Q: What sequence folds into this?
């Protein structure tokens, strides 16, 4: 349970930092970022694997680069369900890339 809460908080911080770095992505406050992180966790656990399985041939042809597009689409889905706002495709693309990078770095730095 502690691992889930830590991952949720890390994703919330990553989303909040991304909204401060990338123009075109906004969230009203940190609680909105935490809500978006919770929904992103559910979307990544349930919907993303199904989408990756369905797009496996394209993903193989693009040597995995199509996964970046899938991550962008998952962020669009989260934005549709939460107070997270995206202004366009490229801000969503950069935001998805930055959220995953910040989350990875923070999870490596923090003790378990």
A:
């Amino acid at each position: 349970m502690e691992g889930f809460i830590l991952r949720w908080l890390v994703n919330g911080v990553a989303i909040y930092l991304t909204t401060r770095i990338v123009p075109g992505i906004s969230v009203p406050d940190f609680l909105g970022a935490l809500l978006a992180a919770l929904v992103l966790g559910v979307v990544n656990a349930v919907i993303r694997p199904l989408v990756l399985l369905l797009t496996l041939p394209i993903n193989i042809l693009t040597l995995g680069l199509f996964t970046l597009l899938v991550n962008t689409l998952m962020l669009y889905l989260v934005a549709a369900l939460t107070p997270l706002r995206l202004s366009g495709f490229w801000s969503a693309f950069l935001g998805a890339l930055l959220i995953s990078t910040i989350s990875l770095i923070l999870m490596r730095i923090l003790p378990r």
